[in-house]
Q: What sequence folds into this?
């Protein structure tokens, strides 16, 4: 399922011309029409309505904690569709040399008062009403007093941190808990300095900034929302992976024996013991990591991202590609874990350094 | 007589629309003031007020106040003497230091409470015969945070803190493993990590026999496998 999403993602949100061509060929931009939107909505609705007939699914989906996540799925789908619909409509208008939809005569301006303030006021009132009704209808679940020697099973972070918790399954705490969140913040702050494309300011457009929209959507939809959904619906007792309609059995047995890359290299391939020297032991991991961050950027600069490299220049390209490589390292590590039971590429528990 | 520039000030203000806005915002008022001040301070000047609204005499204090608010002059009526400024500064710094010092003093005191509700770090855990061979005892988990495991030859005390992020794993008897509910780390009965993200095995505590034959566990001393400390004779108890 995740593989399917990862494979189709860049065709739905094509980052460059090559993907864009295929996107057009498969007519995938039809998703962003009214018909496409209704189909998505119907698909989601049938899935949930059908799902609610299943006892196990019902238990999870209707738990007061999880109701907002169900809402989040619908809302994220709706707003993604809405913005992409407006973007594709604008793209067509731009192709026909027309003014974009957001353009207001005579001089492309709207008034703050009353145009904006009225909308804000209405939104504010409606939000308050919604929160009040919600808190009355679905009371927050109370549990026993906290006990440091007793972790609830499964122990779940607040929903907005479930993505982080899912990352922590694949990485050492200092990477998934410190380095990645920091990089996310820095990366988001760096966007306006990296992406100096002046097109698409003040209106929705996809064609004029394919790369920016595509990479942002990848980070948001796949690396954040999808991980939250997985953490909410598919992670059960003992943090085992459960299918959407599976009973959450505490005694579910999953063979998850993980081994490090150094074990792979020395024990399985060379059939010798691990060397005493730590650096020698982890040399394979170091070569892989350094190669990933030192060889891939110039390789991309010469091939796929040639145009981008010329446009951004040396420094900004380096920052950009390093951020992208960090973002891609999460799905890569997930796959390594699933396919090869690989625990850490570099494992030096003696100095709390594991990657 | 006042210095020349002081006399000129009101007029300057009139010429400068920006400063005028700052001081009062009403040009008419300013005009009145300026003519007033001229009348009072330039004694030899016989300036007749243009408008009949202006009162002929204004109290002296009012005038100084108004003049002070216009232009760049000091707001304080009396200038501070250098010596008193330094003594006030010293006093302020002393007060600040005292307040900060007290605050951190109280904080420090807070770290050493009069009564501790934590269980002792060193405790007796019954006789070796209380533990069955091949079993994991979870009785002391809730109070002291240890599992006591007896294998065929030795008894050891495992820490109940997951080495990944510090949740408390559960002992799953049927699966014969410790499993952490937070991120799915798994440990064997020996404490060795084998699944999930935990980077290193569970820690063991110092264990010995007390004089009365009971097991004595000292949680202040830990033994980590990856540092080769499990071979330390203090980390296990031969039976």
A:
């Amino acid at each position: 399922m995740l593989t399917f999403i990862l494979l189709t993602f860049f065709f739905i949100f094509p980052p460059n011309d090559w993907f864009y061509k295929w996107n057009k060929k498969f007519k995938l931009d039809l998703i962003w029409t009214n018909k496409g939107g209704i189909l998505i909505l119907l698909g989601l609705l049938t899935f949930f309505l059908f799902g609610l007939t299943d006892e196990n699914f019902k238990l999870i989906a209707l738990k007061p904690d999880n109701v907002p996540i169900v809402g989040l799925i619908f809302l994220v789908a709706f707003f993604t569709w809405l913005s992409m619909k407006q973007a594709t409509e604008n793209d067509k208008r731009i192709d026909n040399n027309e003014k974009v939809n957001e353009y207001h005569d005579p001089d492309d301006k709207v008034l703050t008062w009353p145009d904006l303030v009225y909308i804000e006021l209405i939104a504010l009132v409606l939000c308050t009403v919604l929160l009040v009704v919600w808190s009355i209808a679905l009371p927050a679940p109370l549990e026993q007093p906290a006990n440091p020697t007793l972790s609830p099973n499964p122990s779940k972070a607040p929903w907005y941190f479930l993505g982080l918790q899912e990352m922590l399954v694949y990485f050492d705490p200092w990477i998934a808990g410190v380095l990645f969140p920091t990089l996310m913040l820095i990366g988001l702050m760096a966007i306006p300095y990296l992406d100096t494309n002046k097109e698409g300011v003040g209106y929705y457009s996809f064609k004029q900034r394919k790369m920016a929209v595509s990479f942002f959507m990848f980070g948001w939809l796949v690396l954040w929302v999808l991980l939250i959904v997985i953490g909410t619906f598919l992670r059960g007792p003992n943090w085992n992976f459960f299918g959407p309609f599976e009973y959450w059995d505490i005694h579910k047995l999953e063979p998850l024996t993980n081994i490090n890359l150094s074990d792979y290299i020395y024990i399985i391939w060379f059939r010798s013991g691990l060397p005493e020297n730590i650096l020698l032991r982890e040399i394979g991991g170091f070569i892989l990591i350094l190669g990933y961050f030192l060889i891939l950027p110039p390789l991309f600069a010469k091939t796929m991202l040639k145009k981008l490299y010329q446009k951004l220049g040396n420094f900004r390209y380096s920052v950009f590609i390093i951020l992208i490589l960090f973002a891609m390292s999460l799905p890569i590590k997930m796959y390594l874990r699933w396919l090869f039971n690989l625990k850490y590429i570099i494992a030096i528990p003696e100095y709390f350094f594991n990657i | 007589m006042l210095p020349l520039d002081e006399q000129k000030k009101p007029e300057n203000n009139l010429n400068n629309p920006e400063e005028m806005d700052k001081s009062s915002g009403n040009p008419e008022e300013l005009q009145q003031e300026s003519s007033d001040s001229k009348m009072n301070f330039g004694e030899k000047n016989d300036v007749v007020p243009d408008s009949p609204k202006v009162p002929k005499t204004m109290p002296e204090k009012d005038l100084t106040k108004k003049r002070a608010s216009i232009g760049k002059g000091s707001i304080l009526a009396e200038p501070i003497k250098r010596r008193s400024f330094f003594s006030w500064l010293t006093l302020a710094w002393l007060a600040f230091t005292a307040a900060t010092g007290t605050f951190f003093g109280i904080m420090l005191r807070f770290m050493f409470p009069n009564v501790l509700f934590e269980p002792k770090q060193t405790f007796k855990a019954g006789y070796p015969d209380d533990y069955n061979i091949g079993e994991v005892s979870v009785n002391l988990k809730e109070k002291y945070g240890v599992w006591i495991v007896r294998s065929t030859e030795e008894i050891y005390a495992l820490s109940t803190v997951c080495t990944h992020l510090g949740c408390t794993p559960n002992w799953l008897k049927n699966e014969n493993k410790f499993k952490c509910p937070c991120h799915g780390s798994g440990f064997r009965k020996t404490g060795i990590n084998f699944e999930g993200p935990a980077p290193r095995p569970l820690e063991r505590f110092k264990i010995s026999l007390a004089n009365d034959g009971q097991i004595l566990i000292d949680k202040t001393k830990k033994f980590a496998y990856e540092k080769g400390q499990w071979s330390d004779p203090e980390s296990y108890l031969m039976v």
The first helix of chain A runs from residue 2 to 12. DSSP finds 14 helices and two strands in chain A. The longest strand of chain A covers residues 347-348.
